[in-house]
Design a protein that fits this description.
About 90% of the residues lie in helices and about 0% in strands. By secondary structure, the protein is mainly alpha-helical.
């Protein structure tokens, strides 16, 4: 297997680099989306838990979640990553 990869790399260096980089880019995008999504969920849960502890009405903590700058930025970042992921998969 390694010998085959080396042979491919020697014969087709540009194609090999393109495919290898594309795979890494996709893996990086997936990992980034997963980590950001996980952090976003933890942050939402923390807001929910604290709101419940303070006995806030449901509409109030929903408002806090919807207007939280950090959560808004995380949502936007996830959307950007999704767009980037789609553009990479089309290439």
């Amino acid at each position: 297997m390694i010998v085959e990869i080396i042979q491919i790399k020697n014969f087709f260096p540009l194609i090999y680099n393109y495919i290898f980089n594309k795979v890494l880019d996709q893996q990086d995008l997936k990992l980034s989306k997963k980590l950001i999504s996980s952090y976003k969920k933890r942050l939402e849960k923390e807001i929910l838990d604290r709101s419940m502890k303070l006995k806030m009405p449901q509409n109030k903590f929903e408002e806090i979640i919807n207007n939280n700058n950090e959560l808004i930025n995380l949502k936007k970042t996830l959307e950007d990553l999704e767009t980037k992921s789609e553009s990479h998969s089309k290439v």
